[in-house]
Amino acid sequence: MTNIEFRTHIADKIHYTCRWVRKALANSSDCRVVIYATDRNLLNRLDDTLWTFSDSDFLPHAVLGDRHAARCPVILTSSDTDELPHSQILLNLSPDIPAFYAQFERLLELVSTDPADTEAGRQRYVHYRERGYTLHHETAK
Asked: What number does CATH give the domain 3-139?
């Protein structure tokens, strides 16, 4: 069963995601992450920011469908598909529940301080809880 974590009170999802990815890749050389967002503008901004986030770190990533995506540790997608090259960690930036979340070992739900996003996060929390998942919560630092 997928381990589900909620990180709440996030002021800037893009910046938080970049920090989280940097830490995850530094802690594990075999870390594999799929970042899902239905908002393509958000995904494009994240793509740009991952390239420029740090002068001292390289955060390798690709958009699903790119030639090298299967070999990248981080894949960005707005597609609600179960045809993904890896299924270790799913990081959800969308207000919706990804249809394919159950194929992942771990799901990380990021919830911002925006009232609409907070409400959508609550609805996702209830959805997972009603399906018997053990949920973990952490307030973002």
From this structure: 3.40.50.10110
